[in-house]
């Protein structure tokens, strides 16, 4: 019996292979594989798309979370509230900094953070909230922002969803090949509404330095490489159409009676939120 992949990445990039190959040759011929023109251009194009002042390309989505926490000086003795239902990397990034992940309940319909339980979990040690826009469905950002605690949006699966990246002090994205905006390997991005925070993250991702001569922080080596940036620039041109097709696919599941959409806004990436088996 033929196997139907859960995510058919090959089918998405197959029509774009000639252009992907051209971009590969361009980067190969340039000999610039780190922090080249595609890297800088993608950061600008991503910021424009998301409607934020700055973005920082990093090695992967988990690094993106750790870098934001580090830039905010969150560490031992601090608490960060996150969903009890999410991928391991959300809590892992908090623990990696020596802080304590505090798990809050989720809404059974949206599978995102329940603001009522979040409010119960806030203490004087709470330094940030880390909602996850699970499966592309935006978390209740306005309700969470009302608590007055800095928000770090884990938006790994939610490129193009309504309101994402505009409420939190920073939002993180993964370009792992199963994401709706993906690259052909590992990659990540931090989007910032605060330019000073963005600059600190940029330095931390580059060994704590602006120029690789003076080192202001103990940083990391976490960079989106030039080749992946070149591919992402191409995929960024198609993401709106891909999101539209995802919504159509999700609606088809509903028509077949094997899922429900929980009334998602029109411009969510369009995953099926509940499947009946």
Write the layout of secondary structure elements.
Layout: H1 9-13, H2 17-30, H3 37-50, E1 54-58, H4 61-71, E2 79-83, H5 88-96, E3 100-104, H6 115-121, E4 126-129, H7 141-145, E5 152-154, E6 170-174, E7 188-192, H8 195-204, H9 226-236, H10 239-255, E8 259-260, E9 274-275
Parallel strand pairs: 2-3, 2-4, 5-6
Antiparallel strand pairs: 1-7, 6-7, 8-9
Please give a structural write-up.
The chain is α/β, with parallel strands linked by helices and 277 residues long. It has ten helices and nine strands. The strands form three sheets. It has a four-stranded mixed sheet with strand order 1-7-6-5, sandwiched between helices. Strands 3-2-4 form a three-stranded parallel sheet, sandwiched between helices. β2, α5 and β3 form a beta-alpha-beta unit. α3 packs parallel to α9 and α4 packs across α8. It is flat and about 55 Å long. The protein starts with 8 loop residues before the first helix and ends with a strand. The relative contact order is 0.16. The C terminus is likely disordered.
What overall geometry do the principal axes of the alpha carbons give? flat
Pattern of helices and strands = HHHEHEHEHEHEEEHHHEE
Radius of gyration: 19 Å
Strand-pairing-aware structural class: alpha/beta
Figure out the total of helices: 10
Instruction: Bin the helical content.
Output: 25-40%
- Could you give the order of strands across the largest sheet? 1-7-6-5
Largest sheet: 4 strands, mixed
Low-confidence stretches: 270-277
Distance between the termini: 19 Å
The portion of residues forming beta strands comes to 5-15%
The chain-level mean pLDDT equals 92
What is the number of strand segments? 9
């Amino acid at each position: 019996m033929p196997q139907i992949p859960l995510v058919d990445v090959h089918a998405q990039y197959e029509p774009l292979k000639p252009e992907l190959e051209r971009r590969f040759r361009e980067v190969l011929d340039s000999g610039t594989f780190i922090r080249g023109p595609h890297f800088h251009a993608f950061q600008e194009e991503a910021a424009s798309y998301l409607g934020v002042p700055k973005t920082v390309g990093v090695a992967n989505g988990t690094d993106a979370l750790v870098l934001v926490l580090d830039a905010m000086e969150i560490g031992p003795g601090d608490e960060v509230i996150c969903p009890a239902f999410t991928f391991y990397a959300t809590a892992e990034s908090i623990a990696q900094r020596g802080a304590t992940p505090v798990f809050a309940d989720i809404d059974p319909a949206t599978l995102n953070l329940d603001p009522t339980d979040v409010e119960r979990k806030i203490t004087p040690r709470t330094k940030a909230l880390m909602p996850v826009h699970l499966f592309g469905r935006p978390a209740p950002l306005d309700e969470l922002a009302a608590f007055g605690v800095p928000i770090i949006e884990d938006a790994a699966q939610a490129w193009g969803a309504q309101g994402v990246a505009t409420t939190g002090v920073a939002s993180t994205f993964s370009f792992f090949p199963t994401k709706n905006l993906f690259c052909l390997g590992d990659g990540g991005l931090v989007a910032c509404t605060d330019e000073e925070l963005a600059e600190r993250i940029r330095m931390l991702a580059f060994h704590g330095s602006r120029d690789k001569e003076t080192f202001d922080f103990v940083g990391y080596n976490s960079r989106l490489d030039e080749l992946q940036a070149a591919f992402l620039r191409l995929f960024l041109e198609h993401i709106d159409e891909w999101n539209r097709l995802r919504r159509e696919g999700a609606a088809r599941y509903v028509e077949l009676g094997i899922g429900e959409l929980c009334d998602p806004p029109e411009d969510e990436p369009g995953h099926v939120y509940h499947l009946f088996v």
